[in-house]
Amino acid sequence: GGVDEAMRIFIEMQESGQKPTPFIFGAFMHICGIFGDVENATWFLQVMERSGFVPTIYDFNGYLMACDRANQTKLMTEIIAWMEKVGVKADQSTYTILINSSSKRGNSEGAKKLMQSMIQSNLIGPQALISYTLSHAVNQDASSFLIQQEILPLAERLDVSDSSIRNVYNAIIHTCVSQTPPLLETAFEILNVMIDQRPKPDAVTFSTIARSIPAIKNHSLSREQFNCNLSLSNADTQLMQNLLDLMSENKIPPNTDIYIFLAVLFLRSRALLSVLTEIYIH
User: For FRET with 251, which of 7, 155, 200, 224 sits at 20 to 30 Å CA-CA?
Assistant: First the structure.
């Protein structure tokens, strides 16, 4: 299957005298993109040009996708120059591929420039917006981009689904609490934005913040490893109580992680037992 099968079909077409159409070339380029096969993508484009066809944006996007997956970023730059030379303009998919590539490689500045260009070209798309925001959060000081609420107007303009935006917020909260020390203030700012506006937080949002508590972060339910003498401070207890209160106020049922975290904390402090009983049992 995959590229090998595509190559076999293509060679059979040539041997039988059939002339590939631009649509056929585009399909083969897309297959190369999916499998990250730069070598065959290059070959297909060369054959395409020899056949008298000018590569379309669909062909170039397949080529860029292949280069991204094969980690050949230098060649991606050459492809963009090639596109400009033959007068093929980037579309929404092109920008999304490039922004994804920049995001994966921690190039937040490159992603920012691409995002600005995409907005100026009126080609901004939901997936590019999500990729850019994640890249910005991971490589910048947590989430100033979100805190300034620059993403929400764009998301509304693009009709991005609440679930997609929530995934972005949750991922950035995860970035905040993964720092040393955890950026809890920023995490709660994002949580409050979600509560006050959209999308509403879910149990994952709260369990992600709860992971910042040392006793949870390092927990193990096995008897051999549990006696690690991790203390549960008053601040940790208060943090969990605040999260539980907010979940109750916003009618958000706990997920499995929340129950596991509470079980871990109960073994160190009975202070949370009454909170859970009041909120989730009565």
Answer: 155
Judge residue 228's burial from the number of C-beta atoms within 10 Å of its C-beta, 0-12 exposed, 13-18 middle, 19 or more buried: exposed
List phi, psi (to 5°) of 222: -80, 140
Alpha helices (H) in 105-202, listed in sequence order: 108-120, 126-139, 144-147, 151-158, 162-177, 184-196
- Overall residue count recorded for the chain in this entry: 282
The single-letter code of the amino acid at 112 is K
Per-residue pLDDT of 180-224, as tens digits, reads 778 788 788 888 888 887 788 988 888 888 877 765 655 444 444
Residue 39, CA distances (Å) to 4, 66, 101 in order: 12, 9, 19
The answer, as to whether pTM is greater than 0.70, is: no
The secondary element (H helix, E strand) that includes residue 242 is helix 234-249
- Contact by Cβ (8 Å): 214, 244: no
